[in-house]
Structure formats: C-alpha cells, structure tokens
Amino acid sequence: MTVNPVAGQVYNIRDYGAAGDGKNQDRLAIQSALDACAKAGGGTVLVPSGNYLTGALVFHSDVNLHLDDGAVILASDDPSDYPVGQYRWEGVEQSTYAPIFSGQNLVNIAITGPGKIDGNGEAWWKRFKEKNLAHPRPRMIAFNDCLNVSIEDVTLVNSPSWTVNPVRCKNVIIRGLTIINPPDSPNTDGINPDSCQQVRISDCFVSAGDDCITLKSGTEHEKDQLREACHDITITHCTLANGHGGVVIGSEMSGSVYDVTITDCVFNGTDRGIRLKSRRQRGGIVEDIHVSNLTMEKVLCPITMNLYYHIGVRGDPDINDRNPRPTSKGTPRFRNIHFSHIQAKDVKYAAAFIFGLAEMPVEDVTFDHIAISMAPESEPGYPEMADGLELMSQAGFYINNAVNIQLEHVEVENQRGPAFMIHNAAQVMITACGAGKDPSEKPLIHLNNVQNCVIQSCRAPLDDEDMILIIGDRSQIIHLPGNAENPVQA
After folding, report:
1. What is the tens place of the pLDDT at every residue in 237-265?
2. DSSP 3-state assignment of 55?
3. Rounded CA gap, 412 and 203, in Å?
4. Among residues 285, 349, 357, 286, which one has the least CA distance to residue 320?
5. d(CA 303, CA 338)
6. Any catalytic annotation for residue 77?
C-alpha cells in the first residue's frame, strides 16, 4: 500500500507572500500555494523553516504539503478564522468549526515532515470548559471521502480537539507521527480513522488528553449511507501514553469495525490499554480483531470490553438495565476477538474487564500467553465507564455475560481476591492458568452461573485447597481434569 502524490513542481509558500514570523496571518499565502499547485496538476507545497500563522486551509488532489525541518504551522485561536461547515463529529454530520486542514473527495494527498503543526489549542480548551463555544472545536487534520492519503513524519501538538481524523477514506498511511497533547486537554484524541478502510498506522508516538488511537464508524444518529464500516486496519510499532485508552474501538461503531490487527506496541500510563466500548441502541458489530505482542506499564486496566458504556446517557434505564432486553438492529455485538502475548505491570484497577450485554454476550474471545502484574498499591477506581459498577483495586480478570471464552497460559500476580472472576457465561475453557504466590488470595477461580466450563492444568498460590469456587443456580457441567486441588462447591 503506497501513497504518492503526482510528481510536479515545488511551490514555496514564501513565494506566495508567507511571512513566517508567527505574528502576521499567512493563511492566504499558504492557500494560494495549495491552489496553484493543484491548478498546475499537482506537486509539492513547501513550508520552509519559520513560524506560519494560519486559520483553516483546504486541500486539493495530487498535493503533498511538506514541512521542512524547522517549519512550524501555528494555528490561529480566533474562531473567525474557521468557517462553520457540515462535518462528521463524534459519529454524526453536524455544524462544526472547519478543521485546520480539510479536504473532501480528493485523491493522492499527503502531509509530510519533519516539521511541526501546532494547533495552539489552549484557548479552545478554555472556551470549551467554560461552555463558551457556538460549535464543536476545529480538528487538526480531517479528510473526508478521500483515496490515497499519507500523513508521515510530522510532529502534531496542542490540537484544539481530535488530531488526525480521516473519515470514509481508503488506502491511508499514517506513519512516523509524534502527537503530543496535554493529558488534561479535553477530547484531544490522537488518531481517529472513522469509517475508513485499508489503513496502516505505524511507528507513531501518541500522548493525548483522550484516546490515543480510536477506530470509529458513526452512530445510530448518522444517515445510513454515511455510516460505513471501518475495516482492514493495521496498527503496529506505536508507543501510546497518557490517554484514556491506548487503542480503542468505539463507542461510535454503528457501521461496524472488523479485520483489525494491533501488534508490537508499547502502552505507558494510559487509563486502559485495548478498549472496546459501545451500548444498546448503537448497533454494529466489532469482530475479527487480533491483538498481540504488547507491553504495558502503569495502566488502570490493560483490556476492557464494555457494552454498557454510559457517557452521554448516564442514568438511562434502557442503557444500564442488567436484565436481558429484546435484541434489535440497535443491539451491538462483540465477537471473534483474540489477545495473545501481552505483558502488563503495575496495573492498578483490574487485569481485564469484560462486560457483555445480558441479551448479547461477548462471543469467541481468547486470551493466550497473557501476564498481568498488579501494582503493589492502588486507590480503588472504576475500570470502565458504566452505571452501577463497583470500585476495583488490584482485581484479576472480570468477565460477565460471555460465551465461548478461552484463557490459556494466563498469569495474574499480586491481585486481591480471585485471579479469574467469571459470571453469567457458557462454554468457558481455562487451561494452564495461575496466579502469584500470596496464599491468602483465594479462590484462584470464582465461577458464578457458568455453564459448560473446563478447567485444566491450573495452579493456585502454594497449591491452596480452595482453588475454585462455584456458585449460582445456573452453574453446571464443570469439568476439572488435572488441576492441583479439588474445587469447593458453595
């Protein structure tokens, strides 16, 4: 998958009147260079060393905007520099301030480094917190319905809101980016492909005030023809820090998300590592997700899957009801999701938190060669965002409402309470799993209303006799071959 704008002339923005002093407005000069390049059939618009103050800019086909070493594009914080238009924001078309860089129905476009784009977001964040904005804030880079998009080797800082947000784009390369937004900056996600296909994200460093990388596909409020799936996505060799989630799917996933590979990434200090989130009424399917070869440190919870996500709908009884509801087009579904070779240490809240719907359990999920070490001390907190959750601290795997779950060679250390807590599940296999050396934390495995479960070759701390606790009227057909000790039936 390659992206190469049409070869052509180089258009230096200085030749179009750009001052580059960071004080005088250079938007017209930069836009004139972009327009001239496109009119001539394509080429490179060069941003040489300097500081270039600008408002919203509109891209064209067959153009590479190249920021030279020492070049900084500095976004204005004046709302009048960003015309209001119709854009998809948070899963639905609505009126927002124009992105700093935008374009629609384009082919062969690129933004390349090694220069920097500074979104100058502080004033925007302040207005947002004070509820002093007429429309949602500008995103930094947002291309819609484009083919062959490349964003490479640039540094992106202080975005007013989402940083890189291709929407319904195909054949997208995002490589070698450094994205830094303050941890307390609101909604400053790093990279958000939305209803895109054939996307490769690699070799990026992202530290954001919200999710670092998120895959989306619109909400139930979006028009059907615009709510396309996000699929054929690869995320590899990235370092992700400080965000609410490292790599996230949802919660806008009404168009579905599938065929995703996440591999060889490092997570440091993100609230959650791999995070899947949705809720009733949203619809869509997340499936065929493969996650492998990750290392995490100081995360609240390495893996979460939450189908009771409540942001924007707190207290809604239709969303948070724990009883089965009738299924419909609006019932979301998570299935065929695989985690392997993941190590996490100094984890605070829980080793994993999986919460399917009562009427639509998560399905076909595997955990293979996972090693989670809890932090020595941690204040209690909520591993996910849903109504009615209990505080957790140093908990093990929590799985509720699930079908066909396999855990193999999964180790949890320094947890409080059971290493594996499984509720309202069926077709569960736990093989060669264990916990650390504290014999006071028992049982190893707590099953509550679990059917058709096989537990084999597992070990409790110091071979404690109370290794497995089985409760619940619906628990049945529990097979226990080859374990260190016998179960206890409550």
Report:
1. 999 999 999 999 999 999 999 999 999 99
2. coil
3. 30
4. 357
5. 11
6. no
